[in-house]
Structure formats: structure tokens, C-alpha cells
Structures
1.
Amino acid sequence: SRRVRTRDLLAAKERGERWAMLTSYDQYSASIFDEAGIPVLLVGDSAANNVFGYESTLPITVDELLPLVRAVVRATKRPLVVADLPFGSYEEGPAQALRTSVRFMKEGGAHAVKLEGGRRCADQIAALTGAGIPVMAHLGFTPQSEHTLGGYRVQGRGDAAAEVLADAYAVAEAGAFAVVLEMVPGEVAKEITHELPIPTVGIGAGPDTDAQVLVWQDMAGLRTGKGPRFVKRYADLAGVLSEAARRYADEVREGAFPAAEHTFQ
Ligand code: KIV
Ligand code: NA
């Protein structure tokens, strides 16, 4: 079973088959998601929050994200691995975007990169695809621009829908192989999905995109507390792990662990 290719995702759209993408930042989650048949893994700059404990995605650097990309690629056989370009590593223009992306492809072993922005990134997307690097675009609410967008808010409501649509056409025209639509009204995502020849990947964008993506710790309930409305928790990993840690500590205190079977005679 070979690696998933961008053309497989295009073929899935043509057949009307939906697929799921998850983030991954380490070998265990990556190999479990590979075994589970997840076709695309995103080493998101959301590692800033979910691995490094930063308040936003802005601080994470290429040097911090690269080893995580390498780990996910090394741990998997089948998924297409997409590396997110961190804030500040591609905005200067095509030359900077190319320099950063080559590092993710060459040192990280990524199969594609992702960047945030529509028309403003068209030149970068064209340069990268021209250099043989598949690009996933990201529109709607783009976390790296939270200070311009005024916080975590739905984008593309009312008249602003035309802006998101124009950005979607621009990234497809520039050569992107797919586009993430984050926090846009379901009807807008549906229209973009219908209009574009490339797959749309929704997060908080309703049921009518070609694919969906979630941060894995949100999907699996490792992160607790109030999450965004678009998250569905499919497990309670935080509860499972907390219970395991408590039982382990209890057994150590009681002298029940280690037992004879854990001890070398
Ligand atoms: O970094 C990330 O996790 C993302 C996805 C939520 C699309 O960009
Ligand atoms: Na991201």
C-alpha cells in the first residue's frame, strides 16, 4: 500500500468520496492514525498550542516544527503528510516561501506544505507548485492573522462571502491541490466546494466540504474544557490517561507495583 498522492484526493472528489484529515505531531498518534486509515495527516502549526503550550500559533518556529514533521513521516507508511508553514516563514514572498518549504520537504520529508491566505499568497503558491511542492491553502478564519481578524470569529458572513470565494478561486488558479476552509458559514463552504475543482477541507465549515479536519487532541478528548463549537469529541483520552496515572501512583504508594512478574529474579 503506497503513499496517498494529491491526485488520489482529486480522484476522491470526482467520485464524491469524503475523507478525514487529522493533525499529528508525534510517532504514536501518527502510526495509530495510519493504521486507522486516515489518508492525510497535518503537522499543524497548532503544535504551538498542542505540543509547546504557547497561547497562539504565532510563536512557533520552523526549527520547532521540523522535527515533528520528521517524526510523523518516519512513523507512517500510507498517509500524505502536510507540513504547516509557521507565521513569518513565507509572507515575504515566493523566495522565502520556497526556502522554508524546501526545508520541510528535504529535512522534514513532508509530501506537501500548507499556508494561510488567498489572493495575497497566490504568488507563493504558484512558485511552490512550480518547484514541485504541492500546496494546501487555508482560508476563512486563519489563526496566524487573529490580530487582524479580531479573534476567533466566523469569516465570510454576508457580503464577506464574496471575498472568501475570490480567495478560493485564486488559490485553485495558483495551483493549490486542496484548501482548508475554517469557520465559514456552511452555505459558503458548500458553494466553494461546488465551484472549485480541488478538494475543500472543512473545520467549522459544515457538512458539505469534500473532507474534514480536526486537531487530534480535540477529536480524542485529550484536551479538556470548553472547546470550539465545531469540535466533536470521539473519546475521553484525558480521563483515560488521568485514571491510569492515578492508579499507577496509588499502586506505587501501596507497594502493589511492581509485582513479582515485573521483577528480575
Ligand atoms: O494547524 C492546524 O491544526 C490547522 C488545522 C486546524 C487546519 O491548520
Ligand atoms: Na495551522
2.
Amino acid sequence: PGNSLMKHYLQFKDFRAEEYAYLFERARLIKRRFKNYERYQPLADRTLAMIFEKASTRTRVSFEAGMYQMGGSVVHLTTGDSQLGRSEPIEDSARVISRMTDLVMIRTFEHTKIEAFAAHSRVPVINGLTNEFHPCQIMADLFTYLEHRAPVGANGYDLGCLKGKVVAWVGDGNNMANTWLQAAEILGFTVHVSTPSGYEVNPQVAGIRSSDCYKVFADPHEACRDADLVTTDVWTSMGFEAENEARRAAFADWCVDAEMMAVAKPDALFMHCLPAHRGEEVTAEVIDGPQSVVWDEAENRMHVQKALMEYLLLGRIG
Ligand code: CP
Ligand code: NVA
């Protein structure tokens, strides 16, 4: 393992629009093979290490099932059952784990931790969520949007159809919000952001070049007006549990409900990265309603991540 062309995937902006077009086309083909029970095992003899410092359902299942389907194997580590929880330096862990595996996925707290790991890793590192970013999720969300709304051309989905679209972000200025802003800047759409005061997105943390890719709205209904996609997330992200009570009070008006969906475009989709809390950030009517594509969104984590792992390990196919 180890080569000079090695890429990591730590933030959405690590890839260009043209790389996303390629990845979405690979994901589409890989998904089709999966649905047809066609064996596709280009990652035989490759090993993915997955390091979880926070809980997960979707990220674990999608990476683990995806890697096995592609012929590889996985090693699952958590803080509690590895030396990571007994203060072995992250740099040392990176040196060791990356000498025995081909690819590493990490879910952790501060983004600086995954950067430190990547800086000492011999193999590509994938961000499976940090306090600041969740790029694999936004890749799945965009793929889901394209599946539902874009025609398939000779080269797959035309990412040009995302230009000028409006994504309404209702809720916390968190890792998902930051990643949406990066995606908007790269792919040419606009995010209408509405957060309670004190929970705004911070463009510096989001790592965007300019503020052209988003607009701020005090009223969440206004953020949803004429949106092509309405999306939200938990009020309290992992690692922020101590703020739970204060957040419940502050976020009470940031519940995506039928009224918000009614002011969005008639064909607007609803997305949520999950896990969801019905009656908090979204009503049951909306998340279980006809505009919601949350189950496709969850499933697509696996298909886009299979394309991502293939790309990081084998480069472009064909
Ligand atoms: N959306 C998402 O990343 O889910 P998990 O926390 O279950 O992995
Ligand atoms: N913002 C949430 C996303 C969970 C997938 C969190 O960080 O906990």
C-alpha cells in the first residue's frame, strides 16, 4: 500500500465537479449490478479499517456491506475496544493501521483529528463524519436528488441540472450544513439556511471561498419558499449532548412540517440523513410522506461509497 497519487476524502471540496460526475456514474452502474445480483469484486484482497469514535448504523452497515460485496474485508475498531481510547497518539495509530490495511474510514470528533490521521497514513482516509463535515452523506444526498430529478445522458447524470437549484437547510449550522455549503460552491446551487440564533453556519468553519453559495433566513418558512429540496437534521449532534435542553428550547420553531413543504416547489423532495426524531426537527407527516426520499438516501450511502472506495483504491475504471 501507499503511492504518491494517493487521495484522501476528508471534505466535500476534496473533489472537483468533474470527479463527482464520474463517481455518480460509477455509483449508478454499481447500484444496478447490486440490484441484478451481479458479482462485482474489484477489491478482492483489499482491507478497509473502520474507526468509530461515535455511534453509527448507516455508516457502518454501508461501508461494511459495501466492502464485502466488492470482494474485500473490513476491520471494525471503536474507541472503547482499541488503544485509541487509552490515549495512543492518533499519529501512531495512523502509522500502524495504515501499514496493515488498504483504506481507512474514520468517524470522530474534531476535524483536526482526521487530518492528523491522514497526514500519517500510508493509505487513503475517508471521513465518515466529524464535528465539522459529513461528505459521504452529501454525496449520497446529491446522488439521490439526481436519481429522482435528472435524466440519464450518455455520460450519466448531467450535474449541470443542479445549477441554480435551491436547497433549504432548516435547523442546526452543523456538519451537514457545512458540507451542503461546500457542495453548493462546487456544483453551483444555493443553500437557503435558517437556524436559530446562536446556531448559525460559520463560513470559515465550512471552508467555503465566498458567501455566494448561501443565503440566510431568520424565518425557516422563508428559507423553504420555492426550494427544490428541503432538508434538516437532528437538533443535537453527537458530541453535543450536554446542550440538549438548551437546544430543544432554541429549535422549537425549526421543525420541518407540512406548511414548510407547502411553500417549497410542488415537486420538492425532503431529505434527512437520519437518525430522525419525529416531532422534533421534522413531523411524521413530512418524513413519512410522499415527498420524502429518506430511505433511498440511506441506501444510496452504500452505492456511492462503493464508487468512492473503488476510485480511491483503483483510480478511474475505463
Ligand atoms: N446518516 C448517518 O451517517 O447515519 P449513522 O450515524 O447511522 O451512520
Ligand atoms: N449531525 C448529526 C449527523 C448524524 C448522522 C451528528 O453529527 O450527530
